Amino acid sequence: MNNRFSCDKMLYDIVKWLRILGYDTEYKRYIKRDKSRIFITSNTQLKDVFLLEHDTLPNRLLKINKAFNIVQYTKLFSKCSICNEDLIIADEDDMKYLNKYIRDSFPEFKKCSKCGRIYWKGSHYKKMMKFLKDLFPDLLDF
Ligand SMILES: [Zn+2]
Description:
By secondary structure, the chain is an alpha/beta fold. It has 4 helices and 7 strands, in the order βαβββαβαββα.
């Protein structure tokens, strides 16, 4: 299953986590409805949407997972959480501005093909994995 999502402007935190889980997720102030995407909103006035009531972030992610099995089909850390682009393997040139300690401490770096942001499995990654594993114990290590 390769679901794609759109989220309304209230759901920035959800957008970020869906992208971290590897899902193509749009976030726009005025969403032009795209039938190929599941539209997630907390607006009870809209029809043909996945309604996400106000709740904690973990509870909302659990609800999305129950409906769409996002954890089973995850491609963790394959998308930029900022701009929704695919991540590619970073090369030496991409990493020249990174601290040497960081460059020497991690075997692999990825880069957003759009904004150029560099990603690696440092402490931020470990915190995100802990959050996800606490929420979804079945999530496989990546
Ligand atoms: Zn990016």
